[in-house]
Specification:
mainly alpha
Length: about 80
């Protein structure tokens, strides 16, 4: 038996799509924060190990992590 879509089903689907988008992009945000945090931590550890007074590796790793996260975020956006 075929059921026609009622007007109450259309907003429900729209809300589900919005929720999926929200989950996807909030997941990307947490991923960016985690990658950048690990990069900064690794850079700090490497700077301590090398005995650098200037946080060179911290800055380099943070910039690489930020650039990589930004590129991955842009690639994950829908192509319209």
């Amino acid at each position: 038996m075929n059921q026609k879509k009622t007007s109450s089903q259309a907003p429900k689907k729209k809300n589900q799509d919005q929720f999926k988008s929200y989950i996807k992009y909030s997941g990307l945000a947490f991923q960016m924060v985690a990658v950048m945090g690990l990069a900064v931590w690794g850079g700090m550890k490497l700077d301590d190990t090398m005995g650098n007074d200037f946080p060179l590796f911290t800055i380099i790793f943070a910039l690489i992590a930020f650039s990589g996260s930004l590129i991955l975020t842009i690639r994950s956006l829908p192509k319209e």
